Amino acid sequence: TLIVGDASSDEPVVLTSWKDDAVGGDPSTSSGQDTNGDGTATTPQAGDWRTIVFYPGSKATIHNTTIRYGGLHRYSVFWGTYFDAPMVSNEGGNLSFTNSRITDSAYEAIKQTAGTTTILRSELARSAFGLSLVQEGGTGGSTSSPQAGTATIRNSSIHDNFYYGISTNTTTPVTAIGNWWGSASGPTHES
Length: 191
What we know:
By secondary structure, the protein is mostly beta strands. Helix content is 0%, strand content 41%.
């Protein structure tokens, strides 16, 4: 069991790019909050680091934590295609996020192919997808693996994601109740 953050703390845990001078660093030095010692030469961006993976049987309770600037979305000239990776990948674990911010991923903030994800009073923002449930396996439109597990997101803010706040290719519904979708009219998409 992995426990990150303290539900009663005023100071959040932050998992971010080493270029993110908004946190960390040594304020007693001449470079101040400059975490990588290069002044303003670099700034953090989505894709600065890759993925946190939770495998089958793992359990994580994440409170009061900010996770940002990870994931992958890069084009390979050699392969002639894009390679994508989520910032957080649930491949069969039991994940719980409370009062957390999962933002600024190069692709999916959270991708789940199996397991359970519960998100309460948190934020999924500024990624290609906020939360994706993906049933993988099979060919020709059929699938050989089970459904992508279950996901619940309540009383959270899901906004400014490029494609979708929540996306699924499964028949299992995502429970999404009491969320802010970046608009008083609720979730919308041009299609």
